[in-house]
Design goal:
The protein is mostly beta strands. It is 0% helix and 47% strand. Strands 2, 4, 5, 6, 9, 10 and 11 form a seven-stranded mixed sheet that branches. It has a four-stranded antiparallel sheet with strand order 1-3-8-7, with no helix packed on it. The N and C termini lie far apart (40 Å).
């Protein structure tokens, strides 16, 4: 069983930055790929970014590429999402998720993720 707790969301003006954190429980965190997803009101949940278990491979949605950076610290069981140059369309609830397949290949599909955090609200004002 893995538990995830996100933090770092908030209200920011367009062009600003936020850093989301996702703290995970579980001894095998370092063997799991991690992902960030978001869901805006009235929209489906969408992929934002993902990182391999080693941290060597990262993936981004086209809409955030060049502005967001995903990273992880396996010693702290934490994954981060640094968000720069935020836009109003980035407003959403952001969720981190674990693909609980040890040493698995990173995927962008939410169906492949087994555990989810409760989400953290990010609001970008224009």
């Amino acid at each position: 069983q893995v538990q995830l707790v996100e933090s770092g969301g908030g209200l920011v003006q367009a062009g600003g930055s936020l850093r989301l954190s996702c703290a995970a429980s579980g001894r095998t965190f370092s063997t799991y790929a991690m992902g960030w997803f978001r869901q805006a009101p009235g929209k489906e949940r969408e992929f934002v970014s993902a990182i391999s278990w080693s941290g060597r491979n990262t993936y981004y949605a086209d809409s955030v590429k060049g502005r967001f950076t995903i990273s992880r610290d396996n010693a702290k069981n934490t994954v981060y999402l640094q968000m720069n140059s935020l836009k109003p369309e980035d407003t959403a609830v952001y969720y981190c998720a674990v693909d609980a397949l040890m040493f698995g290949v990173v995927t962008k599909s939410s169906h492949n993720y087994d555990y989810w955090g409760q989400g953290t609200q990010v609001t970008v004002s224009s």
